[in-house]
TrEMBL record:
This is Putative short-chain dehydrogenase. It comes from Streptomyces himastatinicus ATCC 53653. Residues 8-198 form the Ketoreductase domain. Belongs to the short-chain dehydrogenases/reductases (SDR) family. The keyword Transmembrane helix does not apply. SUPFAM superfamilies: NAD(P)-binding Rossmann-fold domains (SSF51735). One of its GO terms (molecular function) is oxidoreductase activity.
Amino acid sequence: MGNFLDGKVVAVTGAGRGIGRAVALACAAEGAKVVVNDYGVSIEGGAPTSEIAEAAVKEIVAAGGEAVAVADDVSTMAGGQRIVDTAVERFGRLDGVVCVAGILRERMLFNMTEEEWDPVVATHLKGTFTVFRAASAVMRRQRSGTLIGFTSGNHQGSVAQANYASAKGGIISLVRSAALGLHKYGVTANCVAPVARTRMSANVPMELKEIGEPEDVAALVVYLLSERARAEKITGQVYTIAGPKIAVWAQPRELRAGYADGAWTPDKIADFLPGTVGTDPMPLLAQLEAMAQAAAAQQRPNA
Ligand SMILES: NC(=O)c1ccc[n+]([C@@H]2O[C@H](COP(=O)([O-])OP(=O)(O)OC[C@H]3O[C@@H](n4cnc5c(N)ncnc54)[C@H](O)[C@@H]3O)[C@@H](O)[C@H]2O)c1
């Protein structure tokens, strides 16, 4: 056991499996008291069971740590509140929340139903809000705390996961809003975009070139929750961690601007925009086109 998080109380959602479980175990091993939340659902979000959260708590306790299970659904306000209340009632304070819970319902946009859209956005985006909302009220009073959201490289867009990509983009904006709104209360907010071997990443239809283990992601989360990161005033950031790689994402900003002489008209814009303000090409679209070309070349009969 280390002491990176000695004396801290941390709540982790989706902490029964995959990355969340590794985060909860690592926090406990570094001295934190942990609230283990997991609704215990299938990858699509069905068949909930409390056994998943309870199993992670048993593992933590068996290793000499302190933890309590909350098997609530993070997409409800009551669930988010119960996670935070449990931390305060059982352990007296709340220093960090890590919102890892997530589900997938993949479908092309033109076929996606409301039943595929709503639960995915509710679990990821609202499920981060419900916990941040309740936690930030406690942390504002404490004048300290750390909020961590989980996004994905897919916030850039995704062929068959418009629901997931939209939720993950929303989480980045929620984290940046939290970083801005809670700055004066000593509360930091950051986002992690992981790539790690779990049942969720096993679902990705293409080979992931850069991938690591849930424990790699847990090491970054422990650091972000620690006084070492707080001393560096790290807030409003998005970090990718994929095995040995850690990367920081750029803040969104205007790339190029142009100004009209008088009011814009569609005609003036058509003459002006392409050669000046232009576009910022999508890296993922270029990747998709390269893959389509490679597939077409493979199918072409040898000359
Ligand atoms: N694994 C990767 O490579 C990868 C890549 C990008 C983003 N992510 C993100 O990391 C997070 C963890 O992913 P993972 O791969 O460990 O997934 P996982 O499926 O192994 O674990 C997710 C956990 O969340 C729980 N959960 C689902 N809905 C819940 C709800 N409503 N309330 C509480 N708990 C709920 C599940 O029961 C499950 O135990 C997710 O937010 C995911 O989108 C993962």
